[in-house]
């Protein structure tokens, strides 16, 4: 249950990170509102997840999901670099996230 909440928190982190691009420095109202709401939800879910997942593990997974999701959407939405070495290191982050889940010793 807490891991699912943590994953959802990570997805909301992706949402607000991508939302930042669309706010244009918080000068656009609706993207700014979306981004701020996504930030609040993401942090709230992270806070809930750390009740039963070690904070270091939860934070690393949360930021990892955010980094991977944001990098992938950056490639898709903003035509960011698709270099094989960049993809490789994104994959390494995914491996780290999975490893933390497997070896965390919590729910």
What are the key terms here?
flat; mainly alpha; 4 helices; 81% helix; 107 residues
Write the layout of secondary structure elements.
Elements: H1 2-23, H2 29-49, H3 55-78, H4 84-103
Structure explained in plain terms:
This protein has helices at 2-23, 29-49, 55-78, 84-103. The protein has 107 residues and is mainly α. Helix 1 (2-23) runs antiparallel to helix 2, helix 1 (2-23) crosses helix 3 and helix 3 (55-78) runs antiparallel to helix 4 (84-103). The mean pLDDT is 95.
Briefly summarize what is shown:
The chain has 107 residues and is an all-alpha fold. It has helices at 2-23, 29-49, 55-78, 84-103.
What share of the residues lie within helices? over 70%
* SSE string, helices as H and strands as E: HHHH
Which range does the strand content fall in?
A: under 5%
Question: Termini separation (Å)?
Answer: 8 Å
Low-confidence segments, given as residue ranges, are none
Rounded radius of gyration (Å):
15 Å
Task: Summarize model confidence as the mean pLDDT.
Answer: 95
Number of strands: 0
The coarse silhouette is: flat
Structural class: mainly alpha
Output the number of helix runs: 4
Sheet bearing the most strands, described?
none
């Amino acid at each position: 249950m807490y891991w699912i909440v943590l994953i959802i928190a990570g997805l909301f982190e992706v949402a607000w990170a991508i939302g930042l691009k669309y706010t244009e420095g918080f000068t656009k109202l609706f993207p700014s509102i979306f981004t701020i709401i996504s930030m609040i939800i993401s942090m709230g879910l992270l806070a809930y997840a750390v009740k039963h997942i070690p904070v270091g593990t939860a934070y690393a997974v949360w930021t990892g999901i955010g980094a991977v999701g944001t990098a992938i959407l950056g490639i898709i939405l903003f035509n960011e670099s698709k270099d094989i070495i960049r993809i490789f290191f994104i994959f390494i982050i995914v491996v780290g996230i999975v490893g933390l889940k497997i070896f965390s010793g919590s729910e």
